[in-house]
Description:
This is Small ribosomal subunit protein uS9. Keywords: Ribonucleoprotein, Ribosomal protein. This protein has a single domain, classed as Ribosomal Protein S5, domain 2. The chain has a five-stranded mixed sheet with strand order 1-2-5-3-4. By secondary structure, it is an alpha+beta fold. Helix 2 packs parallel to helix 3. 33% of the residues lie in helices and 23% in strands. It contains four helices and five strands, in the order ββββααβαα.
Amino acid sequence: MEVVNTIGRRKSAVARIYLNDGKGNITINKRELSEYFPTTTLQYIVKQPLNIAEAAEKYDIKVNLDGGGIKGQAEALRLAISRALIKIDPELRKDLKSAGLLTRDPREIERKKPGQPGARKKFQFSKR
Length: 128
């Protein structure tokens, strides 16, 4: 099998992955998964598509992660892995789609407006 590469985004995080046959190693920015995402919740988010596809021990994944926070990065990586698995086996699409792993979450941070401290927050009103 040749190397499959895909991209996943969430908020301002971007995950570029290279998936090929292997033993189930996930390397993120030259670090192990458990080192990069120390909490089991984030590790679970990343491994969700592999668990649904029952391919946790089949592929090695090399990841370049950039931007955003830790949760956004984990969810961007989840989307990239889901897309790569579909490139390999299109029959997985139904299962991953029903789990909601193929939808790019469109929510972005709202911009700050001039004349106020944040996107929605206003300065305190003073009557006198």
